[in-house]
Amino acid sequence: MIALLLMSLSASAALDMTEVYKQRMEIVRMGQIDEKSGRESGVIENLVGGQVETSLANMEARGLTSGVVRQQPWSGHYWAHFSGGIGMRWADPNFPGEDWGDGENYVVRNRWNQTWFDYLSPAEKYDYLTGVDPTEAGSLTRQQWNLGRSEYNRTGSVATWQGICHGWAPASIYLPYPRRDVAFKFPQGDLVLKVDDIKALGSLYWANGSYETSFAGYRCNSDNPPVNAEGRVTDPNCFDVNPGDWHIALVNMVGARKEALIIDAAESSEVWNHPVVSYSLQFFDATNINRRSNSYRDVIREIAHTPNLRHSATRSAQAKYVVGVVSTALITIETMPGTTGDENNEVKFVYDLELDANLRVVGGEWRDKARPDFIWRPRPGTKPTLPADNISLDMWRMGDANWRRGSLMNSAKGAPLRQLVEELFRLSAQ
After folding, report:
1. Is residue 219 part of a domain?
2. Does residue 188 form part of some domain?
3. What confidence tens digit (pLDDT) does each residue in 62-100 have?
4. Which residue in 122, 258, 338, 389 is a FRET match for 413, CA 20 to 30 A apart?
C-alpha cells in the first residue's frame, strides 16, 4: 500500500573487527609498533586526518588541557539482539523483552496487522512503509529476529551486550539531531515513526552500511589477559590503544577540532562504543600520584633522574621525560527507548606520558585496567553505502514497486534505505 507523507509532529558504521585484527597484526609484523610502549606510527595522524599536535608544551599554550565538541551527540538505544534488535516492540507495555524466545513468540502470536500501529517495532513500521510484509522471509523485521536465532537455539539465551552501539555511536554524531515524530497517512490511520524509531533506523544504517574507518588500538578478547609483576599486560593482542595515542587523539579531535571520536569504553571482551564529547586533563608526578597540578610543568620528571620508575624496562627509547595524567572524559551513553534527552557519563583514564627532548608525546603506560580498548571514527567525508542507493525512489509514493525492491535488497544486508533514513532525519530535525 502506498503511504503519503502527512506531517512532522511535535516531539512525543560497520566496524569489521576481523579486518581490524588483520591490520593490527600487519602493523606488528612490519615492526611499525614498538611492542614495548611506543605509539603506533602514523595511526593517529590517519585517524585525525592530517597534521596533529604532539607537543605537550604547545597543547598547554593553546589551551587544550580541556575541550568540548561543537555539537552534543544524541543518546539512543543499542537495540540488543536478545530482544530482537530494532524488531523489538519497545512501545508495547506487554512485550517480553528480556528473553529472545519469549520476544519472538510474542511477535508471532500478536501479528503486526492485528496490532495497534503505535505498538509496532521500528522494523515493522519500516517494512510496512516500504511495501514489505514484516513476516515475509526477506523483511527487515525477520532479518533482525534472525540475529539471535542460532545462539538461542544453541545455548538457550542470547548475550545481552550484543547490539548496534557501533552503529548508534557514529549515527549520533553524523546524522541530524532528531526532535520530532514523523507521521504517514494510511486508510487505517496515521503510522507514526517516533523519535526512537527514527534513531533505530539511523543506527542500523550506520551499523550495516559500508564505509571506511580510521582506528587506533585493538579489541582484547580476554577479560583477564596475563600481566607481569608490575601489573602490565604481556599479551600483545591486549595492549589496547597506547596512552600516547589516546592523549593525542583526544586533544586534537575533541580539543582542537571540537569533533567527537568514538571509544570502546569497556576494557573487557565486550564492546561498548561511545562518543567522547568533552574532556579535562590533570597532571601528576609519576612517582607520587597525589602530587598534582593543572600544568605539566609543575610535576614533569626527567627519566634518567627518576629512580624506581614503574615499567622502566618498557619505556620508549626516545623518552627523556615522564609525567602522569588523569584524563576525565565525558561520553554519551545509551538510553532506553522512550527516554527524553541525552545522558552522558564520566570516565577517568590514568596513565603516564613519555616525552622526548622536545616534549613531544612518544609513548606511555596505563596505570590501571580502566582504558579504552580502541578508538575510531569514520573517515572524514564518508557515509554508509548500501546496495539500493542507486534506485530512484519517489518520497510521495512510498511503498510502490521500487520501494519494495530496494527495501528487500538492503534488508538482506540488515540495513534500511538510505533515502528514507535521510528524509526521516531531515523532517525530525526541523
Report:
1. no
2. yes
3. 999 999 999 999 999 999 999 999 999 999 999 998 899
4. 338
Asked whether the CA dihedral 47, 50, 54, 59 is positive or negative, the reply is negative
Type of residue found at 342: D
Q: Of 121, 113, 93, 103, nearest to 201 (Cα)? A: 121
Our measurement of the distance from residue 49's CA atom to the centroid of its chain's CA atoms, rounded to an integer in Å, reads 19
Strand partners, 7: 183
Report the alpha-carbon distance of residue 170 to residue 14 in Å, rounded: 10
Domain assignment present for 216: no
Question: Residue 94 and residue 388: Cα distance in Å, rounded?
Answer: 35
Q: Pairing mode, if any, of strands 288-293 and 189-193?
A: unpaired
Over residues 239-270, the pLDDT tens digits come to: 568 899 999 999 999 999 999 999 987 655 56
CA–CA separation, 398 and 223 (whole Å): 47
**Contact (CB, 8 A) for 54 and 248:** yes
Q: Are 397 and 419 in contact (CB under 8 A)?
A: no
Cross-strand bridge partners of residue 192: 183
Q: What global pTM score does this model have? A: 0.86
Percent helix / strand / coil, the chain, rounded to 5: 35, 20, 45
Question: Would you state the cell numbers that stand for residue 48, as one nine-digit string?
Answer: 585525525
Find the domain containing 179 and state its range.
4-12+77-210+382-429
Pair (372, 243) in one structural domain:
yes
Shared domain for 256 and 123, answered yes or no, is: no
111 shares a domain with 50: no
pLDDT digits 0-9 by tens, 303-361: 988 877 776 666 777 889 999 999 999 999 999 999 988 999 999 999 999 999 999 99
- Considering the domain architecture, whether residues 84 and 170 belong to the same structural domain is answered as yes
At how many degrees (to 10) do helices 165-174 and 195-208 cross? Answer: 110
Cβ contacts of residue 412 below 8 Å, gap of 6+?
A: 138, 143, 387
If one compares 367 and 177, the residue with the highest pLDDT of the two is 177
Q: Would you call 191 helix, strand, or coil by DSSP?
A: strand
pLDDT-derived band at 26, boundaries 50, 70, 90: very low
Q: Which of 361, 378, 395 is the last residue of a domain?
A: 378
* Alpha-carbon gap, residue 224 to 239, rounded angstroms: 12
